[in-house]
Amino acid sequence: MLEQELKEARLSCQENKNSAPAVAEFPGAADLLNQLKTRRKKSGANLADIEVVLEILETDRSEI
To answer: How crowded is the C-beta side of 39, counted as CA atoms within 13 Å?
Structure first.
């Protein structure tokens, strides 16, 4: 009984992994900085800051 439940849970997990939505691509660092500056005029972020944030997000995404 438990073996059957475990087998079904594994199949369900695999199906969920296969049907997971694709991860969206991020815009370029310069585009993101422009969007940020448009929304928050006094933002102190610069292009280097945005590039680091994108690197962090890429690293996190690759660990999934």
So the answer is: 6
CA dist 47 → 13, 24, 34, 57 (Å): 40, 21, 9, 15
Q: Do residues 7 and 28 touch, judged by C-beta distance below 8 A? A: no
Mean pLDDT for the stretch of residues 3-20: 75
> Residue 43 has which token pair?
């933002």
Token pair listed for 40: 């928050």
- Contact at 8 Å (CB) between 55 and 33? no
Confidence of residue 25 (pLDDT cuts 50, 70, 90): confident
Please say whether the beta carbons of 63 and 38 come within 8 A: no
Summarize the confidence of residues 17-31 as an average pLDDT.
73
